[in-house]
Amino acid sequence: MNKRYVWIMAGALLSLPLFAQNQKEYPGRAPMTHEMTEYWWPQPPIVTPGQAPVDPIPAPSDAIVLFDGKDLSKWENSKGGPAEWTVHDGVFTVKKGTGDIRTKQKFNDFQLHLEWCTPVGIEGESQLRGNSGVFLQGMYEVQILDNYQNETYVNGQTGSIYKQTPPLVNAMNKPGVWNTYDIIYTAPTFKKDGTYRTFPRVTILQNGVLLQNNTIIQGTTPYVGFPEVIQHGAGPIGLQDHGDASAPISFRNIWIREL
Amino acid sequence: MNKRYVWIMAGALLSLPLFAQNQKEYPGRAPMTHEMTEYWWPQPPIVTPGQAPVDPIPAPSDAIVLFDGKDLSKWENSKGGPAEWTVHDGVFTVKKGTGDIRTKQKFNDFQLHLEWCTPVGIEGESQLRGNSGVFLQGMYEVQILDNYQNETYVNGQTGSIYKQTPPLVNAMNKPGVWNTYDIIYTAPTFKKDGTYRTFPRVTILQNGVLLQNNTIIQGTTPYVGFPEVIQHGAGPIGLQDHGDASAPISFRNIWIREL
Amino acid sequence: MNKRYVWIMAGALLSLPLFAQNQKEYPGRAPMTHEMTEYWWPQPPIVTPGQAPVDPIPAPSDAIVLFDGKDLSKWENSKGGPAEWTVHDGVFTVKKGTGDIRTKQKFNDFQLHLEWCTPVGIEGESQLRGNSGVFLQGMYEVQILDNYQNETYVNGQTGSIYKQTPPLVNAMNKPGVWNTYDIIYTAPTFKKDGTYRTFPRVTILQNGVLLQNNTIIQGTTPYVGFPEVIQHGAGPIGLQDHGDASAPISFRNIWIREL
Amino acid sequence: MNKRYVWIMAGALLSLPLFAQNQKEYPGRAPMTHEMTEYWWPQPPIVTPGQAPVDPIPAPSDAIVLFDGKDLSKWENSKGGPAEWTVHDGVFTVKKGTGDIRTKQKFNDFQLHLEWCTPVGIEGESQLRGNSGVFLQGMYEVQILDNYQNETYVNGQTGSIYKQTPPLVNAMNKPGVWNTYDIIYTAPTFKKDGTYRTFPRVTILQNGVLLQNNTIIQGTTPYVGFPEVIQHGAGPIGLQDHGDASAPISFRNIWIREL
Predict the structure, then answer these.
(1) Burial class (CB in 10 A: 0-12, 13-18, 19+), A233
(2) CA–CA separation, A118 and B142 (whole Å)
(3) CB contact, 8 Å: B32 with chain A?
(4) Is residue D259 less than 8 Å (CB to CB) from chain A?
(5) How far is CA A179 from CA D2, D28, D127, in A?
(6) How far apart are CA C50 and CA C213, in angstroms?
(7) Which partner from A61, A195, C102, C222 sits 20 to 30 angstroms from A118, CA to CA?
């Protein structure tokens, strides 16, 4: 079998006002569909990670603890109101229909640690199985999904830059076992014209296994269409309420170090 | 008017055999159309270059001269046969229908100089006006087009990485005046799996004005669909026969320095 | 106090034969001294890490285990003979005077995990206190030192690219507690002339805290003089016998994943 | 003969106040000498450029013309007073003893064009022969020297990042013939602690021949000691009065485009 990987590195699209402007050039232009930016093959190798923490790994002394097991006081919903996800047993769980949450504090370059877990007995397949995500600076989604014995399009699996770059490997722990994410993020710089002067970049380890190595992020991470390049400054860490019944992901032990 | 530029940086698609493989996942997937990867707005600023060489700029002593005004002996057609474009008056001109030509010699990293000219009285608009292109390592097209008072989609104009990154500015000389290209190219390196370990990169000056500054090339440059990442080694310099009647582009004074 | 950091990023020196050649130009040139490339101030911030593993963290399923607690069969001394360091209690300890050891296998890009520990009751100060090091591709030393309440020159402390770039922080566990290193290494590529075409790069986490973020390695890491640029291919992982009485560093749980 | 090049890429030193601070650690530390950061071998290949402009190459329409042949009104001396170099015949010449000059305007990223010429009959050798330099953002010197049939240390020759990186080749025109410099500069960004977050980078063509290709600048460019990393913002273009009798370099046709 041809083991050669050819991964998608999707590109930057015009932002919506510009898209409308450009759309006029082709009045009958066929719309993009979500499938056009989804690729299923080849699947990254499956690696069984050694790291499967029973208890949270304590934060370093200079970290800002974003969730310590007690409350969501460092978080808000997408309208700036209280974060309504469910806190229980030292963790918190997505509360379907309450929407995404994000940190009140905004960040530039950072090292982020978080732990997440999909419940035993989860159903659904492909994207409809434990789907959530971490938004870096509120802009760029690193996918979270229950990819344990569950295939999906490779640029939508756990550890992908969503609809852009698949992870190097699939290093999932099985449902009921906690996963760790260690994310090192370098914010972009912008030219006067609003385009990237330097790309955002990210390194990701899941359960101690490298998924992304200083990977270029090419723009936003929409479901349909290409990445957009949108000028921004410091931004929050966001977590996604995917809105389907199969996504009761739990989180714990979230801390961040400003770099 | 919103002067904010949001440029396309299109992404890497699966190569054709893989595409077929992936296509099976979505039997009814709508095909991409060429318009989906074309963006018209905003147009790069127009700069009137100061450099408009009447005579060819002589080559440095360590350059490999690829065309010295006499013959196409350093070139071949895409089947390996003789290059059949028309040599006259110290220049050569695309001969419609004879296909692309390429150097017999292959290159890795290089500095390439070439000069090109669109005839006075050329007709057509957008892409149907003086369309050609330079292929780096036979893989990646830097667009050549008569963009003098002729708008087209910005990621298809002169100095764009075709269907990827527009040039910083439009620095065209008018028809009948020679343009220079100075292209500094760094070849990619590949992982074992055939994906880029380091991206190809290119710096381009047209008529002494910077169009691309160490820009990442994201893959091949197809008319329809996304860039592909295809593993390759050293490759030729190619020149495009666009095949339409409006493209009698002439070339002269082509030399290359291996880096 | 001025908190502004100004770090050393030392540079590439001529290799020894060239040095001799260059030396002739200045017959009376004063020799470099080791102090010239040592800087003490400002010291990186001290961070108390949360991670202090009692037991080894198991290796991922695709890792090559370089030490599993039993023997040094994957290692050799610098002459290609048997590695003579002391294996005991599931760990191995530097055996003074037997010299550096290195893996028999050679590597290109990799993710390396190793754990190391300095004994309780260790004496000495600055560099004479638990001094060892990890050599990447046998060429580039990442310093290992007991920097717990022990200052030294900042480009010689734990997690520095030795005599080049200091770590972002000091994240030491105290003597008797195991430290983890997670090292992501990208090998250089070379031009025909033997200089770097792309620099080697390294990301390092100690005890889960970021010390180096895709840092450029500028050449070799000598005690006296500047880094050299020496052309090389795949190389081993090396561990240093510093040769002083204060360096009975122990290691355990070493694994590597080829990238 | 071993043709392998091993170039110097010298490193960043502490700024002077810090140096004093660090000096205390080694009260008897031997001082650096200028020879320690000078390397003579191997000399870059000599390339005879094809470009030797009799007349100035006109500026693009969007350029800021810094010298148009008439006066130094865009320039000042290093104290902010009038630039006192000699304007004559559409060019200006270093006036020994009046000190460096710099633009009144400050720049970030830019493309700079300038032309310079050493007089026929110039005497002196090595650095004492037509020595000047261009300072990027007032911080980083690109060397200007009469290197036509005049060897010097390679990291001090024309087109070197002074005391850092030699040029790829020696592409000098002989005395009395104008040389062009086309310099593409990307300014650094800084971390809060004052170190580089991204390095400054520079591409240089002399007479149309590539000397530096997106080369990292490692810090300031002092005569004695290592590069320093000093936090700065926008800065002027500077030109050096080397202060020796052998340096009556002339300049003309200087323009800059902000990127």
Answers:
(1) exposed
(2) 47
(3) yes
(4) yes
(5) 53, 54, 61
(6) 20
(7) A61
Angstrom distance (rounded) from CA D253 to CA D91: 8
Task: Answer left, alpha or beta for residue A62, where phi above 0 means left and psi between -120 and 50 means alpha.
Answer: alpha
Residue D131, token pair as written in the block: 């020595």
Side chain identity, residue B18? L
Residue A20 DSSP one-character state: H
pLDDT tens digits, A190-223: 998 898 999 999 999 999 999 999 999 999 999 9
Strands (E), chain C: 64-67, 75-77, 86-88, 91-93, 101-103, 110-117, 132-136, 140-144, 179-186, 189-190, 196-198, 201-206, 209-216, 238-239, 250-258
Q: Is the dihedral of CA D93, D94, D95, D99 positive or negative?
A: positive
**Amino acid sitting at position C100:** D
State how far the Cα of D116 lies from the Cα of A237, in Å rounded to an integer: 52
Phi, psi of C212 (to 5 degrees): -140, 135
- Supply the pLDDT for residue D24: 57
Interface partners of chain B (CB pairs < 8 Å, 3 or more) are A, C, D
Residues D29-57: pLDDT tens digits? 788 899 999 988 789 999 999 988 888 98
Q: Which residues of A fall within a CB distance of 8 Å from D193?
A: none
Which residues, in sequence order, are CB contacts of C164 under 8 Å at separation 6+? C8, C9, C10, C155, C217, C218, C221, C227, D11
Question: Under DSSP, is residue A190 helix (H, G, I), strand (E, B) or coil?
Answer: strand
D14 reaches C (C-beta below 8 A)? yes
Q: Minimal CA–CA distance to C67: which of C120, C134, C148?
A: C134
CB contacts < 8 Å between C and D, how many?
Answer: 127
Beta-sheet strands, E only, within chain B: 64-67, 75-77, 86-88, 91-93, 101-103, 110-117, 132-136, 140-144, 179-186, 189-190, 196-198, 201-206, 209-216, 238-239, 250-258
A64: closest CA among A112, A108, A133, A115?
A: A112
Is the CB of C190 inside 8 Å of chain D's CB atoms? no
DSSP A35: G
Instruction: Give the pLDDT score at B9.
Output: 31
For residue C197, which residues of chain B lie inside 8 Å, CB to CB?
Answer: 109, 186
* D258 chain-B contacts, CB cut-off 8 A: none
Residues D180 and D207 sit within 8 Å (Cβ to Cβ): yes
Quick check: D16 contacting A, CB < 8 Å? no
Q: Which two tokens stand for residue A170?
A: 């699939």
- Give the three-class secondary structure for C191: coil
Q: Is B223 on the interface with A (CB under 8 A)?
A: no
> Which chains does chain C touch, 3 or more C-beta pairs < 8 A?
A, B, D
Flag whether residue C20 sits within 8 Å of chain D, measured between CB atoms.
no
The length of chain A is 259
Determine the distance in angstroms separating the CA of B199 from the nearest CA of chain A, rounded to an integer.
Answer: 11
Instruction: Quote the minimal CA–CA distance from B232 to chain C in Å.
Output: 16
Kindly give the pairing relationship between strand C179-186 and strand C110-117.
antiparallel
Q: Chain C residue with minimal CA distance to A58?
A: C50
Element (H, E) at C241: none
Interface membership of D109 toward A (CB under 8 Å): yes
Q: Which residues in chain C land under pLDDT 50?
A: 1-20
Taking contacts as CB-CB distances below 8 angstroms, the residues of chain D near A197 are 109
Cα–Cα distance between D192 and C9 in angstroms, integer? 18
Enumerate the β-bridge partners of residue C181. C114, C206
User: At which residue do the structure tokens 């877990």 appear?
Assistant: A117
Residue type, A253: N
Measured CA to CA in angstroms, residue C3 lies from C8, C41, D83, D195 at distances of 16, 10, 37, 11
Identity of the residue in B8, B9, B195 whose CB atom sits nearest the CB atom of A6: B195
The ipTM, to two decimals, is 0.91
